[in-house]
């Protein structure tokens, strides 16, 4: 099982069975990968461990069939147990995405070793403090959001006072400048946001519903990738 050569978080799909309007998760992943998505995260708050392992297996298979195992990263949200169990069954999963309240980054690193990927979403109200902490040296990228409030994750960006803090374009630009590791932005991101986001200097965008709930997920994924590539100042 080789490892990802170089992490590319430019077009990042987060997906679970609760997001697809009943359509198979693997089919949508296949379409996103063929449209040029570079990173896939399996995230489900309803699937069992076995279902998550099965989804991870299917995702790894469609990435392999597309000939993109070396370039498209496959990550699992939260579940270190699922990542380890999948890898022990020979499934090529490349790492984990955690939040600040999940298994600590240090522990993930101990179990996953140096070569696997660990991404983290920092709490919106603590982001600027967090990006200066020691954890950052153990991380591969930051997830930042939400850009807009989103029904997909209504508590995203919720502060101590219970109000959602969305990230302004000025804040996102500042994070991109200050962060020593790559930054991916999401939460309510739609096609129309891509040109503005691409100009902030961040390394990518992540979406759930803009692809998973689209009438034609492949077309939606293609449009997002093309928009990013057209406007991204880093390429
Ligand atoms: N993490 C922060 S916001 C979010 C996740 C998983 C959901 C984003 O969903 P959508 O549908 O792209 O707004
Ligand atoms: Mg989490």
Spans with pLDDT under 50 lasting ≥5 residues?
Answer: none
Number of strands: 8
Share of helix among residues?
25-40%
Overall shape: it is globular
The fraction of residues assigned to DSSP E strands is: 15-25%
Which ligands accompany this protein? Answer: 4-methyl-5-hydroxyethylthiazole phosphate, magnesium ion
Distance between the termini: 30 Å
Strand order of the largest sheet: 1-2-3-4-5-6-7-8
Explained architecture:
The protein has 235 residues and is an alpha/beta fold. It has helices at residues 25-35, 49-65, 80-88, 105-112, 127-130, 169-178, 194-198, 209-212, 217-231, and strands at 11-15, 39-42, 73-77, 95-99, 117-121, 141-144, 183-186, 204-207. It has an eight-stranded parallel β-barrel with strand order 1-2-3-4-5-6-7-8, surrounded by six helices. Strand 7, helix 7 (194-198) and strand 8 form a beta-alpha-beta unit. The protein starts with 10 loop residues before the first strand and ends with a helix. 4-methyl-5-hydroxyethylthiazole phosphate is lined by residues 14, 43, 121, 145-146, 150, 152-153, 156, 186-189, 207-210. 4-methyl-5-hydroxyethylthiazole phosphate binds next to helix 8.
